[in-house]
Design brief:
The structure is a single chain. The chain is built from eleven helices and eleven strands. The protein has 334 residues and is an alpha/beta fold. It has three domains: 85 residues, Enolase-like, domain 1, CATH 3.30.390; 137 residues, Rossmann fold (3-Layer(aba) Sandwich), CATH 3.40.50; 39 residues. An eight-stranded mixed beta sheet has the order 4-11-10-9-8-5-6-7, sandwiched between helices. A three-stranded antiparallel beta sheet has the order 1-2-3. Helix 5 links the parallel strand 5 and strand 6. Helix 10 runs antiparallel to helix 11. The longest helix has 42 residues. The C terminus is likely disordered.
């Protein structure tokens, strides 16, 4: 899949005519609220000249999510938050573990969760997490951080071409989706067990096809607290009550079960809209059905889910055929 096609996929899931109620760009996190809430990490730089400030409320999620294609960091951030607000409406989420605050600090609970598996392995973390150096030193981890604006103990992000193919575990910030580096970073991490993490993480089964083994995204614990932290410039404070990390394994069977459940829910949504459209025209209306945009978005999402499920099914069938062939071949050799 070409890099641009990954963003096509995200935007098909975000193709919702639902109006945006609020957009907040905080110092660390940006927030988009419609029926659901979506987050994205804010750009590192500051600006006083955003030409669209004050105009976003009332635009559709699909319209703002389209900004994700942009390379201007603020527009891309708003686009990512809007895409997540649309995606977070989808139910169910995959089976997973809701992480509780740990000894290392709420923002490091994902690393604490995987700690027994990380010892004696080469770990690369894409993105800087406050307190991670101390955590790694305390537990004797062989850990390297790649950072676009590297600190004293970090490697520059350009080292990804050399370090990621040799890594055994990779923790990849979902902020890489916003800045357009995700497709390449995921490709370089194919040999590793890869965790896509952070509140920017979109809950999509297709991420399995990009070599992602675990999703570590957010689950909202207190929407009011979440908004307050974002508006007041909070960073790691986000995890002290506003959100919690949820970790889900993205194995092929898990992705297949998840996509099957999403297909069932989307089909029900489509059937409801089709019935409502039929009722609309049966009442004598001749104008276009007012929720046609929503129906179109549901159809696009359903097409993506069907493609995802078919690809997973085909991979499973190929694996079973290979296993059966190998077993038969070994039997003949005996």
């Amino acid at each position: 899949m070409k890099p641009a096609e990954f963003y096509d996929l995200l935007l098909d899931y975000a193709a919702s005519p639902e109006p945006v109620r609020e957009v907040v760009i905080g110092l660390v996190w940006s927030y988009c609220r419609a029926e659901s809430i979506g987050l994205a990490m804010s750009p590192g730089g500051q600006t006083r000249t955003l030409p669209w400030a004050g105009t976003l409320r009332g635009k559709t999620l699909a319209e703002l999510a389209g900004w994700l294609r942009d390379f201007e960091p603020y527009r891309a951030t708003v686009g990512m938050a809007a895409a997540n607000a649309a995606i977070n409406r989808l139910q169910p989420k995959p089976d997973g573990v809701l992480l509780q605050p740990g000894a290392a600090g709420s923002n490091l609970v994902v690393f604490e969760h995987f700690l027994p598996q990380l010892r004696d392995h080469q770990v690369v973390v894409v993105g800087r997490y406050p307190g991670l150096d101390e955590f790694a030193a305390t537990h004797g981890l062989r850990l390297t951080v790649l950072e676009r604006q590297p600190g004293p103990n970090d490697m520059p992000d350009t080292a990804c071409e050399y370090l990621l193919p040799e890594a055994e575990w990779v923790f990849l910030t979902a902020g890489s989706i916003t800045n357009k580096t995700f497709p390449r970073l995921a490709e370089l991490s194919r040999n590793a067990i890869t965790v896509l993490m952070g509140p920017t993480t979109p809950w999509l089964p297709e991420l399995y096809h990009f070599g992602i083994d675990y999703l570590a995204g957010m689950e909202i614990a207190d929407a009011e607290q979440l908004r307050a932290v974002v508006c007041e410039g909070g960073g790691v404070r986000l995890f002290d009550g506003g959100v919690r990390y949820r970790v889900a394994a993205l194995t092929r069977p898990a992705a297949q079960d998840w996509s099957r459940s999403l297909i069932a829910g989307t089909v029900r949504e489509k059937e409801t809209l089709l019935q409502a459209m039929a009722d609309w025209y049966n009442r004598g209306h001749t104008a276009r059905y007012p929720d046609y945009g929503q129906l179109d978005g549901v159809n696009r999402r359903l097409s993506r889910l069907d493609s995802c499920f078919k690809r997973l099914w085909d991979e499973n069938s190929d694996a079973l055929e290979t296993k059966a062939y190998s077993a038969t071949h070994r039997k003949r050799e005996r």
